Amino acid sequence: MDVANQLDHPTRAPMATRDATVTPATIADPTALGLASFAGPALLLSFVNAGVLDTSALVAAIVPIGMFYGGLIQILAGMLEFRRGNTFGTVAFGTYGAFWLSFAAYTRWFSTNASAAATAMFILMFVLITASLAVAAIRVNLAICLAFTVQTLSFAVLTIASFRSSQEIQHIGGWIELVAAIIALYAAAAILINATWQRTVLPLSPR
């Protein structure tokens, strides 16, 4: 049908409008992406807090990785969880995406002029939020529940370290954070591998 003929029939609806059987596109599960972007930057940060890496690594490596992988990608995962109707995933990934963006900005531009108490209060806020996520995750699966529970403990120890300006306590918090990152990385790998293989290869909870 040429353009002139289309103009002669202005009331005819387009094919997409008339077809009532159009199937909406399927959205992939973003949980593995969110957990991976949660675990990756946390793994690097844990090495700094544990004293394995020098603090210069904060600006050189952790800030850009935290900003883009931990921040933007995790917020994207949170919005995809929102699209899927997953409240837990929306809050968890949205919160930690914002955490990494805030942490990157704080480390890059504000930490040198901040007091120890200010840093402690920054971490303390996420202790409370992460604790609520850990309680909610009891109904999700064991791996994710453990990841947020251990992360809560890590943040609590790091908060105490900041209030006391104690490097020894900070190192303890860093090692605990390393455990949380490894658990989250396992959960991300399990979800990815199980979805790809279409069967349970790596369990997320005891059977």
Describe this structure in words.
- The protein has 207 residues and is an all-alpha fold.
- It has helices at 3-8, 15-18, 31-49, 56-84, 87-110, 116-136, 142-164, 167-197.
- 76% of the residues lie in helices and 0% in strands.
- It has one domain.
- The chain is built from eight helices and no strands.
- It is globular.
- The termini are far apart.
Key phrases:
207 residues; mainly alpha; disordered N terminus
Short description:
The protein is 76% helix and 0% strand.
Topology:
Blueprint (H helix, E strand, L loop, with lengths): L2 H6 L6 H4 L12 H19 L6 H29 L2 H24 L5 H21 L5 H23 L2 H31 L10
Helix pairs in contact: 3-4, 3-5, 3-8, 4-5, 5-6, 6-7, 7-8
Total beta-strand segments? 0
Taking pLDDT < 50 over at least 5 consecutive residues as the criterion, the unreliable ranges are: 1-23
Class per helix and strand makeup: mainly alpha
Helix content: over 70%
Q: What's the shape?
A: globular
The domain count comes to: 1
Relative strand content: under 5%
Radius of gyration: 22 Å
- Indicate the mean pLDDT: 86
Please outline the major beta sheet.
none
Order of helices and strands: HHHHHHHH
Distance between the termini: 61 Å
